[in-house]
Amino acid sequence: MRIERDGTSNTITFHPTDGTHSGTVVLMHGLGDSGDGLADLAEMWAKKLPHVKFILPTAEQRPVTLNGGMRMNAWYDIVGLDDRASESCDGIEASVDRIKTILHNEKSLGLPYSRMMLAGFSQGGAMSLFTGLQLQLEIEGEADKPSLAGILVMSGYLPGASKFKLSEGFQHVPVVHLHGEADPVVRPQWARMTEQGLKSHGMTDYTLKFFSGVGHTISMDMVADAMNFIQKSLPEDSAFVIKPKPPSEMSIKELKQAVRNLGLAHQAAGFYEKQEFVKLLEEYQANTL
After folding, report:
1. What predicted TM-score, i.e. pTM, was given to this entire model?
2. Catalytic pick among 21, 128, 147, 183
3. pLDDT tens per residue across span 187-210
4. Quick one: pLDDT band at residue 144, thresholds 50, 70, 90?
5. Which of 72, 93, 170, 275 is deepest in the core (most CB within 10 A)?
C-alpha cells in the first residue's frame, strides 16, 4: 500500500500495490472536516482490502449559513437544521462535478464504474447519495450493469430531495445506510425519510440500519458493517485488475515517481538515462507481478 497526499487537489489516496488494484472507493468527510479526518478509517480498510483504492478528497472552503457564514470545508451550504430536504444546497453541483471527475479518472485507468463505490459520513454521506444515484455514466461495454457497485452512507441523508431524480438503471444500486439511533445532528427521522423517499423513486436495495446508543459518530460496529459491505460489493477479482503502465511508455517524470513509490530509489542512485530507469522497473515487474 502506498499513501499519496496531493496538495494541489487536496486529496489523500491509499493506493494498492501495483498489479492488484481492482476496485475503488471515494470516501467523503463531514461538514468542517477534511480527508484527514477519515484517513485512519480508510487505512484500516485498505489493509484488510488490499485490492481496493481509497480516495479521500477534501471539500472546498465556503461560507456555511448554519454556522453564521463562517468559512469551512463543506460540500455545499447548509441553511438550518429543520428540514434539510427542501434546501437549495448551494455549491453542491460543483462538488458533484468534482466527484464525477474522480470517477472518470478511475474509468480512464481501465476500471469499470461497476467496480467503484461512493461512501461518506454525515454531509459526505449525503453527497454519496446525491451524486451516486444521479450519475450519467459512460457505459460502453457495461450495458448489463451501468451503475456503481454500491453506496455507503454513514449518518447521512438525501439533500435537495425535492430536485432529486434517480438515474435510469440505478434503482438496483445497493445502498447501505448506517445511522446512530441517538444522533442529535442528523436525526434518525431524516434517515427514515431518506429511505422512504428513495424507495418511492424505485430503489429496490436500500438497507437502513440503526445502532442503539450511537450519536453522530462512526461506531466500531458501524465500521465493521461498512467494511463487510465494501468487501461484498468489491470482492477481489483478477478480471478487473488494473495493469501497471509499461515502463517503456512512461515519461522520465513518471519513471522517477514509480521508482520512489516502489522503494527503489537507492537502486536508481546515479541514474541519468531514461533507459536505466526503464530497465530497473521492468526487472522489478518481472520478478514481482
Report:
1. 0.89
2. 183
3. 999 999 999 999 999 999 999 999
4. very low
5. 170
